[in-house]
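Re: export button greyed out
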Amino acid sequence: MASSFYPPQRTLMGPGPSDVSARVLGALSRPTIGHLDPLFVTLMDEIKVLLQYAFQTTNELTLPVSAPGSAGMEACFVNLLSPGDKVIVCQNGVFGGRMKENVERCGATAIMVEDTWGEPVSVDKVIAAFDEHPDTCVLAFVHAETSTGVRSDAAALCKLATERNALSIVDAVTSLGGIELLVDEWGADAVYSGTQKCLSCVPGVSPVTFSPRAVERINNRGHKVQSWFLDMQLVMGYWGGSSKRAYHHTAPVNALYALHESLVMLQEEGLEAAHRRHRHNHLALVAGLEAMGLSMVVAPEYRLPQLNLVNIPEGVDDAALRSTLLEEFDLEIGAGLGALAGKAWRIGLMGFASSERNVITCLNALEAVLLRQHAAINPGKALNAAQAVLKG
Amino acid sequence: MASSFYPPQRTLMGPGPSDVSARVLGALSRPTIGHLDPLFVTLMDEIKVLLQYAFQTTNELTLPVSAPGSAGMEACFVNLLSPGDKVIVCQNGVFGGRMKENVERCGATAIMVEDTWGEPVSVDKVIAAFDEHPDTCVLAFVHAETSTGVRSDAAALCKLATERNALSIVDAVTSLGGIELLVDEWGADAVYSGTQKCLSCVPGVSPVTFSPRAVERINNRGHKVQSWFLDMQLVMGYWGGSSKRAYHHTAPVNALYALHESLVMLQEEGLEAAHRRHRHNHLALVAGLEAMGLSMVVAPEYRLPQLNLVNIPEGVDDAALRSTLLEEFDLEIGAGLGALAGKAWRIGLMGFASSERNVITCLNALEAVLLRQHAAINPGKALNAAQAVLKG
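Workaround output, generated via the alternate export path:
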């Protein structure tokens, strides 16, 4: 017979999920009500407004897709693409590759613009790709690459798409709530995110927003979207502005209580303050890591404050170190993905997990385990360096 | 500024979500851990085994899709169908129509077998459809129609599909945990369900199971599944039997805590006992409703004990009555859908909500509001009739 599962209290400093606050977990476990209950409809309206704030947009079609970020990604592609369309896909990490998969499964063609993992998307290469393929109808890129910890220039890329009469699809899974994301000012057309990164909500829901240009493309499609579940014209009937909601699917009621609470918390703190906090803790962590003798993968100007890629020193047993952190310190940090597997750690400081306490916890634990592995580091320096930044 | 949302404590006797127990809500709000944490992987393995019990199957590919039941439905269709395939779709309510949408969005052809809403699927009509279309490769039908409260003969339909060398796709959204569902004994090939019906878990996750025949079809596909998110070959890499889990998407960690707890509760009670409880409370509710002078939509032999369709008496204001039940009694019952909109109520006695207390609560509240609307009913009879069954 199976019995109830009691998870330990981890400190989640990987690439997500990030630590979920007691306040959000409390909201999650409030009594379930019906998905068409008038009070729930009111909650849905509030979530839309709170998401508009988080995305810095007035887009009417702004809502949480009832599934994880990869379904949010798919929602953007299947609603905007038709077979035969040309899409420029920028790849500088894992998630550009997933975009390519999405494009091809829509029967469209992906024009790949590739950059080294750990570097941002080259705007010049994208310009060249548009020059070569002027009939491109969508430009897709990742704002904050979760596999490499790199920020690309979303403002420039969205502007370029608009100039070339293409729509932009922007992966903001890791950026939302952690760094500046100005959907309207940048003119981004379809943006998807996740709840389990800088919003520090439980995983399973994907906020998306579509510009009026994107909605026009959706409304003028000549054929049905290949996914019934992700068909935005149907989803709009449930989430839409009218007081009469059409049943489409059963919303994940409790997950939306939690999302609402996390967005209320973001609004209370304020976006700018949240960004400052992420940056502040990031600088302290980097100061500590560098004082310890470790080096960062990404150049300072492209680093994501919420996801820190650290080169694994020679001779360190990556898997053993992460296991020890998890088992002895209840601390999760992320492994490298794809080209960076075994070469880098991904240390998240996302949302509620971006705290002074977590910076100190992580530096202490990492130093202890590295010393046990006889790694060539400078012991006893990291905390002072980090504290200097935190107090600065 | 938005503020925290505090839902009322409703009694959920609609078509789902059903009442979620404090035990499941407690599990839901336990601390989030990583989706690749070894402890979480152990939990995933337990969920698979518990779902195999609930589905009465040894199917290796048995897991919860990380999205609502309509995505579970889509997962079955997109993984098993190819463009040009012929699919017999049985429609005797709303969800057969949704199956048709899924078939067509896969580029396949739906051969519709239609029955009156409120009646079961006619096996004879399906035989005739197979005779007319011997090259049919899938038979799709709804076991327990959530829009009409009707049970169809899943055993006979699955057997027929096997005889005709077709795979069966079975909608068991409302049946799982409430009535007999024998996936292996019946030879069902792809079955999807929901968490928010007779499992009384929060909505948002869809248990599915695929037979070895179905897995063989998936593994021998000549082209990629049109959905990346729902591609079972990729999902298997994360949920599969090997100890090395490949990252596909971020699982809805806390929702799976809750699903696990609800399945542990089902195992503790035992499937047969759960079915008996559903039937017992159903018979009491029907006795009460009929003593009150109300009539049921569905003939006794096809009635779902977990979802009771009641004809709305002449002259009753349906919307006003349901609003009053919700606002004054915190009681949700379901409206009719599609052909039954305005004509019937859907009273759920699902999972944790299938209780003697709820039978009495519902009869009392319904009688009070019907009397206020001067409906022609027999007052003062319902409780005694229900109690006689409950104590019998």
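Chain B has a mean pLDDT of 97. The button fix ships in the next patch.
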